[in-house]
Design a protein that fits this description.
Strand order of the largest sheet: 2-1-3-4
Helix content: 25-40%
Strand content: 5-15%
Distance between the termini: 53 Å
Number of strands: 4
Largest sheet: 4 strands, antiparallel
Mean pLDDT: 83
Structural class: alpha+beta
Radius of gyration: 17 Å
Order of helices and strands: EEHHEEHH
Number of helices: 4
């Protein structure tokens, strides 16, 4: 990926409105792209992120691009700790 500045202002746009179904969020402007990326990944419901895009200067990032920015080693903010995964229980073992 080319050099990307997480300190640049960014805009997060919801998915296009289809019929009367609304996106789960409205347009938001962020002081930094890092804050916008973190909000998109950690706070938006998956259905709201699907179809949304992030605009930083003239570059646009879709859901996949936003996730790539979040997972980059260059991402400057602390990421949310992953949810613990509970081990699967087998009902046959309980009997």
């Amino acid at each position: 990926m080319a050099a990307f500045s997480y300190n640049t202002a960014a805009e997060l746009f919801p998915a296009a409105i289809r019929k009367k179904k609304r996106a789960g969020f409205a347009y938001r402007r962020f002081d930094t792209a890092a804050a916008a990326v973190q909000f998109a990944i950690e706070q938006l419901p998956a259905d709201s992120l699907n179809g949304a895009y992030l605009q930083v200067d003239e570059a646009r990032f879709d859901q996949s691009g936003i996730r790539t920015l979040y997972e980059s080693e260059d991402f400057p903010l602390e990421r949310r700790a992953p949810e613990p995964v509970e081990p699967a229980t087998d009902d046959a073992d309980a009997a």
